[in-house]
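To whoever picks this up:

The parser on our side crashed when reading a file containing two proteins. I've narrowed it down to the boundary between the first structure block and the second sequence. Both blocks are reproduced below exactly, byte for byte. First block:
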Amino acid sequence: MHTLFTVLLIISCISLIVLVLLQSSKSAGLSGAISGGAEQLFGKQKARGIDAVLQRLTIVFAVLFFVLTIVVTYVNL
């Protein structure tokens, strides 16, 4: 049982890393924050298309990562 949860945790970790790296950048970095890039960050722009799918999948895999981490910890005890 412990091995199954550990393998699922590793798969979710790798998937989460890949999903975060596939997402497009949403800010212009430090220079954008100083010169008014916060308008884009807090604006009412919704992610569309593949960005929306990647964003939702990232949330799902992040929750899965935390749940599996807690499960592996309790199974290990």
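<<boundary where parser fails>>
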Amino acid sequence: MSSDQAVVADPPAFPMDRGCPYHPPAGYAELRQDGPVTRAKLFDGREVWVVTGYEEARRLLVDPRLSSDRSRPDFPVLVPRMAAAKLVALVGMDPPEHDIQRRMLIGNFTVRRANALRPDIERIVGERIDAVLAHGPDAAVDLVPEFALPIPSTVICELLGVPYDDHEFFEEQTRLMVIATSTAEQAAAASRALVGYFDELITRKQASPGQGLLDELIRERLETGQLSREDLATIAMFLLVAGHETTANMLALSVLALLEHPEQQARLVADPAGRAPGATEELLRFLSVADEIQRIAADDIEVGGVVIRSGEGVYLPTAAANRTAATFPDPDVLDIGRVPRGHLAFGYGIHQCIGQNLARVELEIGLRELFRRIPTLRLAEPLATLGAKPGGSVQGVYRLPVTW
């Protein structure tokens, strides 16, 4: 089938909102009925390809004919704020520039490095659970600001060498950059504010060096001329934003999903240490919070019975791929005993999330310790009152009130 033949009369709007925070939008199933690769329409009227099939997504994610270059003027954006706050570092680059930056950073995000951070992460998680318990069982505690957000925020600050005292500032700027409801002006201003913050922090660190990754990059890359000051500030901003926003949403949504599936919660409570690693992988598949991966075709590509033409936009929603029944039997069932090998929650190929090992450790320890220490945890409000973040954002909830 040609791309012309595959165009439907009235393509659905994209991105799509979730009705339930932990399930994909209902529209994904409707898209899938038209084939694993079909058309949708963005806010500006542009039509793009949406890939809902697992095998097709996996194939395309390693196809060099799909470009990640967000500096291209024709690169497709889901919502207006994306055009103003483009995170060009790493995820928004093609080789060879992408490969150069990734090699600079990858040694700090290996499995070995993530495991070496376990004692520090266990300390941070323990302190946050202490703070939750200090409220007492009769109070409704919001786990987003008390648990889910501060854990990855503290971890990435310690890794980078960023003062955690500044967390309210950078968390607010991050929110303005990534939430779909921000205007282009708000997102652009937030991006400038964060780059300016890191430019100033680089100056302070040059005068008084520390031990974080940012200090290492200043010493080994900036002062040797391998990185410009602007590029270093942009990379640092990317690591800070990506290092806490996605994991924070994943932690909150994981807790919510478990509380809404009491039989799975009971399995984790019965064996927190043994079940937490597997539960983490299944929840990554089941929730797929970093849902929309975007690309643009640099050449014609035939896939899934259609031809994607050069210059056409492509979206690969991981929540659709990770709910493909042929790859994951009973995909809409949460089963923490499942071994969901090959899920695409962190993407695939050269752009696979550089921080995935760190995120896994944070999620595993956070879930293990929370349900070990507070086994009777339960929602303090009905699920319907929580809502879900809009499509075009990292998926999650704004609030997670609990009691025990």
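After patching the parser it read the second block fine. The chain has a mean pLDDT of 93. The longest strand covers residues 292-297.
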